[in-house]
């Protein structure tokens, strides 16, 4: 890839953070899931970059090293990192679209819910819209109820990464799932559920036909609780990491549509 004048591409390793600065009207923030990495978004990010769209794909705290490091990270750490990237994009562009995979989808919702209470117009000023890919609003595991105790007894369980139907794809996820990190995510999810009513921005839910990580409960909660317009897109040929699966082009299309709508909206302009 060649950056246009005034733009930069940072990091060439798939698991590394990716930054592309361009003079586009709309910036796009892409958030990966727990135990995963920016590799899950990289092909889609590269297509957006080819459009000369400003893109941020951060490596969330505790990721990209060894799974033990993730047990030292918390929901607050991930939320702060995502908010920092959002603030940077808002400082450079008149509108921002946020897309998230799995836990990244929950973090995208967290950012949208953070608008000041009662400031419905302010929510649009901060984030124009959301594209959520198999967003995780709870831990869909038989261990869910035991997590508060189990996290102190067992450091990790089997990996949840690379639930992908398309062969030869790799989200560069950890080989183990750290339970302290998952327990922290669970607490964040429970808090977020109580604040979904605050979210008024347009939201697209991209839901896989087969998902071995996140069940349909999360999408049902979003359709019932979000205050803004919600649309569901079925990813019939994909599993959990749909951003690397057969239906990745559908996810890309939805992000482009949201980006273009943001660019055309008077709300997105200073």
Description:
This protein has 270 residues and is α/β, with parallel strands linked by helices. Helix content is 35%, strand content 17%. The protein contains nine helices and ten strands. It has helices spanning 42-50, 67-70, 75-92, 103-113, 120-126, 147-150, 179-193, 217-225, 248-264; strands at 9-10, 18-20, 26-31, 54-57, 95-101, 129-133, 156-158, 176-178, 203-208, 230-235. It has an eight-stranded mixed beta sheet with strand order 1-2-4-3-5-6-9-10, sandwiched between helices. The longest helix is centred in the N-terminal third of the chain and has 18 residues, at 75-92. It is globular and about 55 Å long.
Low-confidence stretches: 1-11, 117-125
DSSP, total strands = 10
Strand residue percentage: 15-25%
Written as H for each helix and E for each strand, in order along the chain, the element string is: EEEHEHHEHHEHEEHEHEH
Radius of gyration: 17 Å
Overall body shape: globular
Q: Helix/strand/pairing class, anyone? A: alpha/beta
- Helix count from the secondary structure assignment: 9
Q: What would the average pLDDT be, to the nearest integer?
A: 91
